[in-house]
Design a protein that fits this description.
By secondary structure, the protein is an alpha/beta fold. It folds into 4 domains: 3-128, Orthogonal Bundle (Globin-like), CATH 1.10.490; 131-252; 255-405, 2-Layer Sandwich (Alpha-Beta Plaits), CATH 3.30.70; 433-667, TIM Barrel. It is 59% helix and 14% strand. The strands form 3 sheets. An 8-stranded mixed beta barrel has the order 8-9-11-12-13-14-15-16, surrounded by 5 helices. Strands 2-3-1-6-7 form a 5-stranded mixed beta sheet, with helices on both faces. A hairpin with a 5-residue loop joins strand 2 and strand 3 (328-333). Helix 11 (194-219) runs antiparallel to helix 12 (223-252). It starts with a helix and ends in an 8-residue tail after the last helix.
Length: 675
């Protein structure tokens, strides 16, 4: 009895038994919606097996097209198909061994089943090969380390899909473009975590090893083994991309901080010239106010695209990132002097140009400063941040891009940095001594011309008792993380003056930092202050951005302490009108303080006039008070009165004064102004 006769006699029964076993397999049921669907698939597979096993001896070939059409849409994993066919093979071999003595017949049936499994494995490879590309999806896919492997991956995929092994990307990991890109500035910044980068290195070698092994089996048409290696390759690529994503997430979660950490490393390791550049877009607040955030964002997206395209041509030496204290930072390693000049000039042209959006012509201006870091060995992130921000101020008097490379300039900057450290020591010492005082600037009711509000303004007290304005130290206070401590001392000082303040004015405005409302020690001081001073005569000022970004904490403070808030710098472009409306409706928001830039340009800019008019109408419609700050002349004061602004504040009316000075003026009826 030939084995094909045994097949015809026993195959149907064996397939039925296998089907019953498969239907009870919970692992398979995860992939199939219903038993009816599973039976239909198994019936179809059984017909394929019957046709193949009955006809194989005649044709000697597997009908690959027939096999492909069946398995390409099958959602059952190859491992399940493999298991079922292995079960079939064993059952058939047992039947043959029971009924005939010719062992070669057993070998034949084993060969036929293995040949079928091999053909099915090829189908699975071809239908699954696109998952390699899916594994490469990431929010960071446009960045260097993802792009580095994408072309290699595409060649591998297309090679398998087309069965054109001539285009298969054979090669070692060391010869791969990815290894070359690892020495580029972007990769070096991203790969500062030594453990993750070593893991990435090992995964990269594993990928190339698996890919080359896959190629060997696929070329030999051992598709079963090739599929096993493919699954290993897929897992390596997924781990590889997961690691890259993690590295980019860590680096670009705060790209500015990462860049400066990278610079610190460069200053220790690099033998090449290193330059740090800052590109600061001027007057973004005013642009947002005049043209709207959506419009300006479109301009910034255009600028970003042009800048990235520009530096892409030199990505082996240059990295450009968005910053928080500046709009962009750029680091270049090993650029020749003429290349650096050409690059910074090109950047300056991009960021100092007129952009058109919806028939609007928007003039963008910027400051571009470049500092040669030769000679700044050992300086840390804070040092470099202070230097570039200082240079930003210096650059306002320059035209074009500003490159600082001479030895005399570097010596001057190092001397300035030493003095800055002295300022930090001085400020830290004064805070420790609680050498803080508060002066108050009167805020006048424009209609009655009387002082109704005082704004508290912090001062440091020097060793001679002189009061130092906040503008000279507030940035340093933020930089050294002392703003919460300063805000606590301000509350203590206002509490000390509370008796006099309640005689002078109805309300006191107190500025509060967004950092402070998140600080536990400040919250304790805040609760004690409100318990002493009360909540009726106090309004806390937060900038637009701070209110929008910390809305939950603002609501909590209002609910817990019944305090009210003013929006400082209103019109600077951050706030949501819906948020302002909701806060005013709940009685949380009481005042809108018009942004300084709008008031200062009121007599010069028709757009600013329109914006201020709109703010006045908005405030009135929401039953809010409005304050025009930084009033420097009568014309601006009269304009604010015309528009319906409630209150006026500025040096034209009164400079900030001590409590004693204001109390004397109050008792003598002098807290008013004349037209």
């Amino acid at each position: 009895m030939k084995y094909n006769e045994i097949l015809k006699e026993n195959l149907t029964t064996i397939l039925e038994e296998i089907r019953n076993g498969i239907e009870k397999d919970e692992a398979i049921n995860e992939f199939i919606k219903s038993k009816e669907e599973l039976r239909a698939l198994l019936d179809k597979q059984n017909r394929l097996l019957q046709d193949y096993l009955y006809d194989y001896e005649k044709s000697g070939e597997l009908d690959e097209k027939y096999c492909w059409n069946f398995y390409k849409d099958l959602k059952i994993p190859y491992s399940v198909v493999y298991k079922s066919l292995q079960t079939l093979k064993i059952a058939l071999m047992e039947q043959i061994l029971d009924k005939i003595d010719n062992k070669s017949e057993v070998v034949e049936i084993e060969k036929y089943i293995n040949h079928l499994l091999n053909g099915i494995a090829k189908v699975y490879i071809k239908k699954d090969i696109h998952t390699l590309k899916d594994a490469n999806r990431s929010v960071f896919k446009k960045y260097l380390l993802f792009r580095a492997h994408l072309e290699w991956l595409n060649d591998l995929i297309e090679s398998v899909k087309s069965d054109d092994l001539a285009r298969f990307p054979l090669g070692t990991a060391d010869a791969c473009a990815f290894s070359r890109y690892m020495d580029y500035p972007e990769s070096m910044m991203v790969c500062m975590d030594a453990n993750l980068c070593m893991h990435l290195h090992d995964l990269h070698h594993s990928i190339h090893k698996s890919a080359n092994t896959f190629y060997l089996f696929y070329k030999k048409k051992d598709y079963t083994q090739a599929y096993i290696i493919y699954k290993e390759l897929l897992e390596s690529i997924m781990n590889f991309n997961k690691t890259i994503t993690e590295l980019y997430f860590l680096a670009y979660g705060n790209s500015e901080e990462s860049l400066f950490r990278f610079i610190e490393v460069l200053l220790y390791r690099s033998n090449s010239d290193v330059h740090l550049s800052m590109i600061d877009i001027k007057k973004l607040k005013t642009l947002n106010t005049n043209f709207g955030e959506l419009t300006i964002n479109r301009v910034l997206e255009d600028i970003d695209e042009r800048l990235q395209k520009l530096v892409h041509e030199k990505e082996d030496k240059v990295i450009l990132v968005r910053g928080t204290t500046a709009d962009y930072y750029m680091v270049d390693v090993g650029l020749r002097e003429e290349e650096l000049f050409a690059l910074t000039e090109a950047i300056y042209k991009i960021t100092n140009s007129v952009y058109k959006v919806e028939n609007k012509e928007i003039e963008i201006k910027s400051t571009v400063v470049t500092l040669s870091l030769d000679g700044f060995y050992g300086k840390n992130r804070d040092d470099l941040t202070r230097l570039v921000l200082h240079l930003k101020e210096e650059a306002k008097t320059k035209k074009g891009s500003y490159i600082v490379a001479s030895q005399s300039d570097k010596e001057r900057l190092l001397e300035w940095l030493d003095n800055a450290y002295k300022d930090i020591d001085f400020i830290s010492k004064k805070l420790a001594q609680k050498a803080v005082d508060v002066v108050f600037q009167p805020i006048y009711n424009i209609q009655t011309k009387e002082v109704e509000i005082l704004e508290a303004l912090v001062r440091l007290v020097d060793d001679n008792g002189k009061l130092i304005p906040a503008g000279t130290f507030i940035d340093t206070i933020y930089a050294i993380g002392k703003i919460e401590e300063l805000d606590r001392l301000v509350l203590q000082k206002i509490e000390e003056y509370q008796k006099e303040l309640k005689i002078i004015a109805k309300t006191v405005f107190v500025n509060i930092s967004y950092r402070s409302i998140l600080d536990s020690r400040y919250k304790e001081e805040f609760a004690r202050f409100i318990d002493s001073f009360g909540s009726d005569g106090i309004v806390f000022e937060l900038t637009e951005q701070s209110i929008v970004e910390n809305i939950d904490d603002v609501l909590r403070l209002h609910t817990e302490f019944d305090v009210h808030f003013a929006v400082d710098d209103f019109g600077s472009g951050y706030s949501s009108l819906k948020t302002v409306s909701d806060l005013s409706k709940e009685g949380i928001l009481k005042v809108l303080k018009v942004d300084e830039s709008l008031v200062k340009n009121l007599n010069k800019d028709i757009y600013d006039k329109r914006i201020v008019e709109i703010i006045a109408k908005l405030a009135n419609s929401l039953e809010l008070k409005s304050v025009g700050e930084f009033i420097e002349n009568k014309e601006v004061l009269d304009a604010l009165k015309t528009y319906g602004i409630t209150y006026a504040q500025g040096y034209y009316l009164s400079k900030p004064k001590t409590v004693d000075e204001l109390l004397v003026e109050k008792l003598n009826g002098l807290l008013t102004y004349e037209d």
